[in-house]
Amino acid sequence: MFLCLDIGNTQIFGGVFNDDKIILQFRKSSRLSSSSDELGLFFREVLRENKIDPVSINNIAMCSVVPDVVYSIRNGCIKYFGTDPFILQAGVKTGLKIKYLNPLEVGSDRIANAIAATQLYPNKNIVVIDFGTATTFDVISNDKEYLGGAILPGIRTSMEALESRTAKLPAVEIALPEKVIGKTTKDSIQAGLYFGHVGAIKEIISKVTEEAFKGSRPFIIGTGGFANMFNDAGLFDIINTELVLRGIYYSAKMNLKKEN
């Protein structure tokens, strides 16, 4: 079996693959203070609680946008699984032609999303919208060129900014509002967060369609923790919340095959 880990700014998103099928997904807070022992033991325990023998994990792969956590996770994997994990980073095989001016600047989670998108939905112009700590847009052409994208604050990040930078606005639950005109402060914040995000997404998709694809609408994929919240907004052709895990998995298999 194959354990894949996406280390984000807020959470570690993990998944176990068995014969190309994801049989388990889990999430953990990505605290910088976590030791290699804490992380290694957590991974073993979450597997056991879901009836998966840790001994059955033959390979581990990961991507990270939090460099300080990589050392602890890598050592935890070596100590508790006897496996040095594959890390999706600059220089590994991806199957993409990356057109960023400096490819080292592209987050490895964004590359993982692009890898999975081109594998699962081939021969399409694609925009991947990932709803996490940041909401990211990745633009990929039908010949696997990673063209770049856009980044804006994620919906929870926007809410936390309102709470921390204003005297009277409270933190609110991230929830789908019933109406755009709120009758309470809570409703008004929820409406602004949701519909503001929808408006920004529609505008960016429109600009990308013109700039990259000469007006031909690309295939739009929603992913990430908050993607399902926007399911009824008419933004996506498909939602695939496991996209980043599949990208890590596909990249690891490409590179392990290359080594062998």
What are the main properties of this structure?
260 residues, alpha/beta, 5-stranded mixed sheet, 2 domains, 6-stranded mixed sheet, Nucleotidyltransferase, domain 5, single chain, 6 helices, globular
Description:
The chain is α/β, with parallel strands linked by helices and 260 residues long. The protein folds into 2 domains: 2-87, Nucleotidyltransferase, domain 5 (2-Layer Sandwich); 97-247, Nucleotidyltransferase, domain 5, CATH 3.30.420.40. The protein has helices spanning 36-49, 67-81, 108-120, 155-165, 185-213, 243-259, and strands at residues 2-7, 11-18, 21-29, 59-64, 86-87, 97-98, 126-131, 134-140, 145-153, 219-223, 238-239. The strands form 2 sheets. It has a 6-stranded mixed beta sheet, with helices on both faces. It has a 5-stranded mixed beta sheet with strand order 3-2-1-4-5, sandwiched between helices. The longest helix is centred in the C-terminal third of the chain and has 29 residues, at 185-213. The model has no long low-confidence stretch (mean pLDDT 93).
